[in-house]
Amino acid sequence: MADTPELHIVGGGMAGSEAAWQAANQGVRVVIHEMRPHVGTFAHKTGDLAEMVCSNSFRSDDDEQNAVGLLHWEMRQAGGLIMEMADSNALPAGGALAVDRDGFSAAVTERLRAHPNVRVEAGEISELPTDGHWIIATGPLTSEGLGQAIARETGAEALAFFDAIAPIVYADSLDMDVIWAQSRYDKGETEEEQKAYLNCPMTKDQYEAFIDALLAADKTEFHEGETAGYFDGCLPIEVMAERGRETLRHGPMKPVGLTNAHKPDEKAYAVVQLRRDNALGTLYNLVGFQTKMKYGAQADVFKTIPGLENARFARLGGIHRNTFLNSPTLLDNQMRLRSRPHIRFAGQITGVEGYVESSAMGLLAGRMAAAELAGRDLPPPPPETAMGALIHHITGGAEAKTFQPMNVNFGLFPPLDGVKGGRRNRKDRYKGYTDRAKLLWSDWLRSAELDLARTA
């Protein structure tokens, strides 16, 4: 493969990093174009690759009962860099996979910069390239210039929604006489995992006062012509509160599966959970507390939470516009732009939502590009697999008129034969989905590796 042309990847986030790793490991010379730190965004703080700007969680790691856990498994089987570095920088999270965000992005950056087939070039790409081999993986914060170029090429406005990030507090500012450590339902195999979350209990009166404060707080204003089309998996807490006073108590503030270590006989009416955000345990993020409140209002409102009265914030929440393609109409099943097939797209800009889903689409884009450069055809994985279900959804399975960002979920998978539906049979059904997916993913991966060996 010595004469293989270079593969250019625009964007060094999760998807771009994974795409680069996969292609480079197949002998392709890769150039990552990353505009940071020369051109910043409101959410990024460093110039590192794969920087995490929202939660530090990769969500459930259960590969038998959870679709995102299955996606973790598939990426690990494919030698995914993002999962390897997540595992090596993991924090206790009670059955979920959470990471030390700084250690994680530093590790990804170090591995890619050390790879002999990878080089990183700083600078913004603001126009669509007219030739060469490209993957655009610029994520939710695509620069204005490139976003406009994409819109001109596709002949349609990029769809948009607004994404909110949660605040982070310093651990030494929390009142541990009020707060206790416990994962919901004591999930986790070790004591550290079973106590991976901090819990702030609320009485009914405290909860009602908190909801009143949320509703009354100053919020970020939208610019003229913008609409707040939020992705349901990342709703600001104020938007949830506006949908009904009990919405938060049945969402991120649900009190189930928890027993107050300080007052075991008292059942909390609502609970705010905090999850460790770094390996040192000095930072915690407010789980599910994405917000569009203005900074001053955030501090005032969050300090009404029991145990956070004296909280100091390492980062307050924020809101940003997020753009993505109407992929069912614009991309083929190789994630190539139909009008310019030398350009692939990967990650959140394709209409998947979440760190893991974005990385998975980067993994596929990198492998597909490497195969094409070697004169091979790499078909998409079967739709019964987690990655196959996602790529099928974004490149044709979804309804184009109502296309919205999507997390991986079993609703995207073809039904199982001979397995009953309904809540009662859910455990067996989910196990059936994951067993089937693992067999088919292993077969697809084996076939891809054999094709690579024959053409090497």
TrEMBL record:
Q: Entry's PROSITE patterns? A: GIDA_2
Which is a GO BP term held by this UniProt record?
A: tRNA methylation
Q: Which cofactor does it need?
A: FAD
- Which segments constitute the MnmG N-terminal domain? 7-376
**InterPro entries according to UniProt:** FAD/NAD-bd_sf, MnmG-rel, MnmG-rel_CS, MnmG_N, TrmFO
The UniProt record lists the EC number as: 2.1.1.74
Question: Looking at the record's lineage, which domain of life comes first?
Answer: Bacteria
Q: Where does FAD bind?
A: 11-16
Summarizing the function annotation, the protein's role is: Catalyzes the folate-dependent formation of 5-methyl-uridine at position 54 (M-5-U54) in all tRNAs.
Q: How is this protein named in the record? A: Methylenetetrahydrofolate--tRNA-(uracil-5-)-methyltransferase TrmFO
According to its UniProt entry, this protein's organism is Pseudooceanicola atlanticus
